[in-house]
Amino acid sequence: MDPEIKQEQIPEKKDFKFNFNIGADPEFQIISGNKRISAGEAVNALFANDPKCKTKELGYDIPTFGNIGWDNHDCTGEFRPKPEKTPQALANNIEGLINFITSKANFFKISTLSYGDPLGGHIHLEIDEQSAQNNAITDKLQRRLAFMYIPLMLNDNMMILKKRLQQNYGGFTDKRLEKRSNGKYTLEFRTPSAEWMTTKEITIATLAYVATVWNELINHPENVEKHAACFFTDNNHAQNIQRLPLNNFLVFIEMMCAQAKSIIKTFEGYKIYKNEIDFIMNNKRIIDIKKKANWDCVAGWKIPTRVWAIRPVKQR
User: With 60 as the cut, is the pLDDT of residue 306 above it?
Assistant: First the structure.
């Protein structure tokens, strides 16, 4: 039996919604024949003549599900799903975007593993305006969120993780505050890589884990304070800890990982998302699933592939 959590084990939590929106803009690379294809050129070629897709800066709006585009470095693509209040609903929007692009052409891989450029799996978390405009508050929230993310960081390809850290990309203090078009503010959590998007099961579980932590930070800070001694004390502390994998001091990271795994079990959302959170904290299992899918969304999300037939040329 494949070491995967089955879809029936991760039902949509119909009676529970977080009181904040969850969004994301995970990056990907298009790979064909072990070569990268410019995501900007590919997306333009696939969508430019589709009347259903409205042109937006650096991308196209896709009906129902969100936006597909590229960042300022157009080798890298981005899925920008419509924000939701549940991990399942957000994952469904990501699935809709993956299905849409592969319905146009699915003879390539949609890779979540960094080929040449680091890929971010940025997660957007709604925050109130007063907190968003206070650097001390947002720095503290970011540090605590990053500490709690350590168990999921160890799910990533270690060589790629070291490369990302050497390029100062995806650090424990890497965040961005944004005011959205609806007037709401979000904290963009930029520590995760894009690897969490490899399969739907990993996607749902990652979003459930991060949303559970965020829910505790903003709605139950009194419980979080009980564990204050475990968290990073300041930004320098956080940055120094993240350098440990570069020097193979994984034993210290693993100690903090164990602390985070223990802490999250005291959070409100753990009771609701226990299956997903226990699943995503099993590092060996998650790494095995990603390897089996070869970090490819087409394989990982089980997207049906078409057989491309070549018609014989008629002889004259």
Answer: no
DSSP 30: E
Containing 56, the helix (H) or strand (E) segment is strand 54-56
Name the phi and psi angles at 189, rounded to 5: -85, 105
The angle formed by the CA atoms of residues 285, 158 and 27, to the nearest 5 degrees, is 85
Distance CA 53, CA 63 (A): 7
What is the structure's pLDDT at 242? 78
Given a contact cutoff of 8 angstroms between Cβ atoms, the answer to whether 283 and 151 are in contact is yes
Q: Which residues contact 132 (CB under 8 A, 6 or more apart)?
A: 138, 177, 179, 185, 187
Rounded to the nearest 10°, the torsion over CA 144, 146, 152, 157 is -160
Report which listed range, 70-84, 131-145, 156-170, is most confident.
131-145
Sheet strands side by side (includes 185-189): 22-24, 123-127, 185-189, 175-179
- Tokens representing 130 are 């007063």
∠ Cα 206 212 213 (to 5°): 95
Contact call for residues 235 and 143 (beta carbons, < 8 A): yes
Q: What is the pTM of this model?
A: 0.90
Q: Which of 17-26, 76-85, 297-306 has the lowest mean pLDDT?
A: 297-306
In angstroms, the CA 189 to CA 166 distance is 19
Res. 248 pLDDT band, cuts 50 70 90: low
CB-CB neighbours of 237 under 10 Å: 15
